[in-house]
Amino acid sequence: MTREMTGAEMVLQALKDQGVQHVFGYPGGAVLPIYDEIIQQDDIQHILVRHEQGAGHAAEGYARSTGKPGVVLVTSGPGATNMVTALTDAMLDSIPLVCLTGQVPTHLIGTDAFQECDTVGITRNCTKHNWLVRNVNDLPRILHEAFYVATSGRPGPVVIDIPKDVQFAKGIYQGPTATPAAAHKSYRPQVKGDITAIRHAIELMANAKKPVFYTGGGVINSGPQASILLRELVQLTGFPITSTLMGLGAYPASGENWLGMLGMHGTYEANMAMHDCDVMICIGARFDDRITGRIDAFAPNARKIHIDIDPSSINKIVKVDVPIIGDVGHVLEDLVRLWRTSGNKADPSAMKAWWGQINLWRARNCLAYTPNSDVIMPQYALQRLAALTKGRDTYISTEVGQHQMWAAQYLGFESPNHWLTSGGLGTMGYGLPAILGAQVAHPDALCVCVAGDASVLMNMQEMSTAVQFGLPIKIFILNNQYMGMVRQWQQLLHGNRLSHSYMESLPDFVKLAEAYGGVGFRVDKPGELDDAILEMIAVNRPVLFDCRVANLANCFPMIPSGKAHNEMLLPDEANDEAVANAISAEGKALV
Amino acid sequence: MNAQNVNAPSAYFMAEVSDKTETHTLSLLVDNEPGVLARVIGLFSGRGYNIDSLTVSETEHEAHLSRITIVTTGTPMVIEQIRHQLDRLVPVHRVTDLTVQARLNSIDAPLERELALVKVAGHGEKRLEALRLADAFRATVIDATTEHFVFEITGRTSKIEQFIQIMKPLGLVEVSRTGVAAVQRGPESL
Fold it and tell me: Which runs of consecutive H residues, i.e. helices, occur in A363-443?
């Protein structure tokens, strides 16, 4: 469609044409014309947050739980700078976000005007791309291009900076093109994998004696079909499978071949399988330092196959033998089809031996912990949460720290897009707004944020948003009165000198919930936990659940910094001395 | 099976296994839009890559395309990374590693030229010597008084470096260099 309208009208029209239903945002001087359009229509619902960072993380949760891009609208200057953390978070975890920022009028740009900042300059390195729109006639093209760039190839955040005079100016609106990929002059990511490389991968897999699938967030980003194909491939081959933090749910935790998460706080069996494997099939993961541990001791005997849509992920950290550039879903489709038609089968005797070895590692029972009948162990709290939410459509987000790792270890994810966590950037303050965004997209689902007492305070103000919009999010706080992971690292690295990791003067979370207009729970006895969790689920209002847990529990198993996959610290071996000496002098310098 | 033998349209398969640093010349075709140079430079500074030389100018006015030539130093793995990181910038149309291209054609280096303006001041024998050497280097005098010359010299980076070194004892005042412009030998374009 083509007709004359103002820049602000174009924004709303383009959002509608792109199928947007929800926008997270916060008004301010430089976006008032767009807000004036918002109130005059009903197609797009605007969720008013309490801080722009909250809007960004809410849009991330929305995007991750739906597979659609999250849309954010904020004002110039502080509105834009408050978005930087969320944009960087989305950049590192490849989450599609379209962020619209207001800007001072074009004639004031560069004059240090009120609420002016160089938004495109500041966000250049934390977005996939960004635009400053100087002419209203460029606006429709840029708006549509932004959705294309954010969602195609390796997804990511984009920013469109729109000066206020451009929002008022009139121009000709153009609708989106049917084929944005063909129409784009320079950005056309490769989605189909090279068939020759896929055949080589199949050859390696068919001859493998000790194979392992190592999958990541790319499987989730590729869409639900990729997860279905992955499950099919695992079943066809019978290979064991592990996943990164970001990839949890692509293969079900109840699946037979599931080894659990890998990496720094991954399971013993997953990390040992990675270390000892002879063929590694990396699907949509990027050999992050949390995954690999010591690079020179990473899977030393493995031939590596790497499927990734981003060519720059290949050979970045780890040299691979068979790179396959393409969208995970497309490549898996070819891989499954060719595996079937080639009549390949994994070597049965080798697989029997490999699974025998894996089962010995599994028997090590690396996630065991000492139960306690007086104090709630954090692991126990999460096991009960998992048990009592089983069978429901449950979305889980986390903040960042020990509780995040425990949630990844103990909750058990069965389907993709149900697990929202800040993996790459590790943003404390992500979880509460992220689950709010997921609840907006899935109003009838159970949406739980597993939080820590420190992280949850970073974006606590979004409780107010939840109350305003009737979003019954459940904030399940594992309250140990410490920044638990910081305290654990101080114990590991710094002689247990707990510098500023104790949260003195924590608020009364029950009263805080009530002050916001939500519901508060406090539980400190294991025996009372189940009833309280059930009550929390039953309440149809925002909840802060203050679960008082053992203060000094550590998160194990753990690959200490600078160590290899087969040098894990297991909970039953982690006495004070082992913990104090786990990390060498060189390892201390690592993060 | 060796990855280098995989017949796929990707240069990873050609990547060498070596940790020695090499100097490569990359050529980029980009949209001439505001901020594109900042994106390229920001990528280098943000990820800790080296820039030895960088030149940029619009080369196709109707298509608003600019050509950026970057000379960079790194291990082959890092240079591969740089190429792919540049390639995923949205306004970048094409990235070519001219050094790799030259090697594939059994040529030791692409055609590279730099221009420098070299100001030398002095009297007597030194002044004559400077003029004689400039002539030997095929530098031309584009400005002069009885006290100075400004030489214009064109050539590969090594030639310019050598000329500047020679001029130092002869009264070198200042130098302005364009950085490297480069194309591939032969009839093909990027």
Answer: 378-389, 402-410, 431-441
